[in-house]
Amino acid sequence: MAEQVIVCKELTKRFGDFYAVNNITFEVTKGEIFGFLGANGAGKTTAMRILCGLSFPTSGTATVAGFDVYHQQDQIKRNIGYMSQKFSLYENLTVLENIEFYGGVYGLSRQVIKERSNELIRTLGLEREAKKLVGELPLGWKQKLAFSVAIFHRPQIVFLDEPTGGVDPVTRRQFWDMIYEAAATGITVFVTTHYMDEAEYCNRVTIMVDGKIEALDAPQALKQRFQAENMEEVFYQLARSAKRSSD
């Protein structure tokens, strides 16, 4: 039986009378690419912040890498990687300085940082850019570097919040190739996106609408269920259905 590395049961986050995350339940298995899909404001980022140990839920339960989101947030943070919606590296530091800085933050030894830094720069083909300021790199390269840094310490799980926003389609495809490579090493990838075509790249997806999970399954199964040609059609059917129910 596949190991479950994220387990959520009736997880809820409320701000006054507003439910940003409303009673969601799901599990994610080791090495899975798990898509957390929905329009802006659907509750994706709020749920991710809870799972990353950055925010407490109002009710419900959740464990990440075996640690409880209420009482073991520090342990969660040590076992995950995180790439935020906004570019998260320091633009006034060089490529190499950024890698070394985050290696230190993750608690790696100097020797390990040196070895992995050289390996990463070679893998990304950034030998000529290693001493350039990150701010001088094209956006696509910044995003690839940010992802590589997020998994530099080889975490159990990496959380990616809208990682391909603003980049061109070719770079988006290349970024997903990197995600596949990470998953092949056993890293679980939890990715939020509002690009419905990216759902096709995931093993399973949830579709969030107004804080609730309206569907959870493999992309092909969802397309068959809703008799849709693509995931965008699935999403719009779910969104219309949710709107009718709330009216």
Automatic annotation (TrEMBL):
SMART domains in the record: AAA
Q: Which SUPFAM superfamilies match?
A: P-loop containing nucleoside triphosphate hydrolases
Q: Which UniProt keywords apply?
A: ATP-binding, Nucleotide-binding
List each copy of the ABC transporter domain by range: 6-235
What GO molecular function annotations does the UniProt record carry, in alphabetical order? ATP binding; ATP hydrolysis activity
Q: Which Pfam families match?
A: ABC_tran
Among InterPro entries, the record links this protein to: AAA+_ATPase, ABC_transporter-like_ATP-bd, P-loop_NTPase
Question: Can you say what this protein is called?
Answer: ABC-2 type transport system ATP-binding protein
Q: Source species, please?
A: Chitinophaga jiangningensis
